[in-house]
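Exam revision sheet. Question 4 asks you to relate a sequence to its structure. Input first:
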Amino acid sequence: MLRSLPSIRSSLRRAKTEAPATYWLLLTNLVVYLAITLWFDAASIFIAWGLTPVRLIDSPSIETLSTVFTSMFLHAGWLHIGANMLMLWVFEIGRAHV
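Answer key, structure tokens:
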């Protein structure tokens, strides 16, 4: 584990310069998750900003169409956001080095 720390640090430095969109997407997801978890009522946020297909089909307005975008930043728990961010990191950072 300790031997892998320098490679993680260098990987973070490369991510900022070679894949800035992925780096900022990871950071934004984590900040939004922490803000929702610590300061807001998660249930009301999920209802207001989560994608509900029935609502999208029944009343396609700008507000319901925006949930297609905003739902990308909603995560159900630590395991959910951890797995999503790990997969984003592995596939996007790896792809950026090809």
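Marking note for examiners. The mean pLDDT is 78.
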